[in-house]
Design goal:
single chain, 357 residues, Heme Oxygenase, Chain A, 15 helices, 0% strand, Iron-containing redox enzyme family protein, Haem_Oase-like_multi-hlx
């Protein structure tokens, strides 16, 4: 019998360049056969990942080494890495390293958003609306792109967002088998739209590729990973953290609710900004699609999804709030990074990384 080829498909992205000693250790390990003894990762996992323990002064949310390490580990659960054996997905030594890194990430998130308020299931939709209203005081990235950004800045923004939008909906889909009843039906309803209602040409990831092509960008999956900073990776890692852990299913739903509740207006602005720069319907279709769809998703996510889950699981209300708060807080950090860099006349992408053609 022929041996099973467990290497990821040729369409998967190549492994990225390391950004520190520990991401380098993981990336080099992935080039080998999983299960080797002794594992080159065992000592790191056993050490408890000291670079991100409390009191070191290292900010995990902006740490390039930590965020890349997490992204590399999480991607094994999505498309995998070109030339990397798929058995690494559940290799115990790698999971130990990932878990230690996740602990540092989680501590930073809890410090960032603080303790959830006391809430009842009935009060949850209103609390989510209040979080979103407060987020309106954040950096007006969508306004900048709608009114002032030139084509180079818009292309740069799309490079950042390609890390998520080329796998759009996939992280939240992990929640479907972990729900029942109304909440499950609500999540499926939202996800069906994200996947184009069963039509490959209407999938949101496909529409986003049209935007990238109009801007002259390379639309291959993961093409710009080396170019984006930790702030961009953290947004993506947050959803994977919630989606891949059943214990965080409430936070995953809160994240999706906040995501949908803050989507419609910014996407209208993005579409308007791209039209201002000469974008044709193919270029703006991704954003225009979200204006209408997410206005509907907002209500489904807040009431039918989070509200139903909270009613069935009252203990999960703080988790739902936490997921929404983390979503909004990391989006704010991302927007601050872009606007600060642009105001200073420099790129928000990583120095020395080839970002655009």
């Amino acid at each position: 019998m022929r041996p099973v080829d467990r290497r990821s498909a040729a369409t998967a992205a190549p492994l990225p360049e390391p950004r520190g000693p520990l991401s380098e250790l993981v990336i080099e390990a992935l080039r080998r056969t999983p299960g080797a003894s002794p594992s080159p990762l065992a000592a790191v996992g056993d050490a408890g990942y000291p670079p991100w323990t409390a009191g070191t002064g290292t900010d995990p949310l902006r740490d390039e080494d930590l965020q890349l390490l997490l992204f590399v580990c999480y991607e094994l659960h999505y498309q995998g890495w070109h030339g990397v054996d798929d058995r690494w997905e559940w290799e115990p030594s790698l999971i130990a390293v990932r878990s230690a890194a996740e602990a540092g990430f989680e501590r930073a998130l809890r410090h960032l958003v603080g303790a959830p308020p006391r809430l009842t299931p009935d009060g949850l939709p209103g609390a989510l609306a209040a979080l979103v209203a407060a987020a309106d005081d954040g950096p007006p990235l969508s306004v900048e792109l709608a009114r002032r950004a030139d084509l180079a800045r818009f292309r740069e923004f799309v490079v950042h967002r390609s890390i998520y939008h080329l796998k759009e909906a996939d992280p939240h889909t992990w929640g479907i088998p972990r729900l029942t009843g109304r909440a499950k039906a609500a999540l499926v309803e939202i996800q069906m739209d994200e996947y184009g209602g069963g039509r490959a040409d209407r999938m949101h990831a496909t529409l986003f590729r049209g935007t990238m092509r109009w801007l002259g960008l390379d639309d291959r999956y993961g093409r710009y990973l080396d170019a984006v900073p930790a702030q961009t990776l953290a947004i993506n890692n947050l959803i994977s953290l919630f989606g891949l852990h059943r214990r965080w299913r409430g936070a995953l739903l809160g994240h999706l609710a906040a995501f949908e509740m803050t989507s419609s207006l910014p996407n209208r602005r993005y579409g308007d900004g791209l039209r201002r720069l000469g974008g044709d319907p193919e270029a703006t279709r991704f954003y225009d699609e979200h204006v209408e769809a997410d206005a509907v998703h907002e209500q489904i996510a807040a009431h039918d999804l989070c509200g139903a889950f909270a009613a069935e699981h009252p203990w999960a209300v703080p988790e739902i709030w936490f997921g929404a708060a983390c979503c909004l807080a990391l989006d704010r950090i991302f927007a601050e990074h872009l606007l600060t860099c642009w105001a200073g006349g420099r790129s928000a992408l990583r120095a020395g990384a080839l970002a655009v053609r």
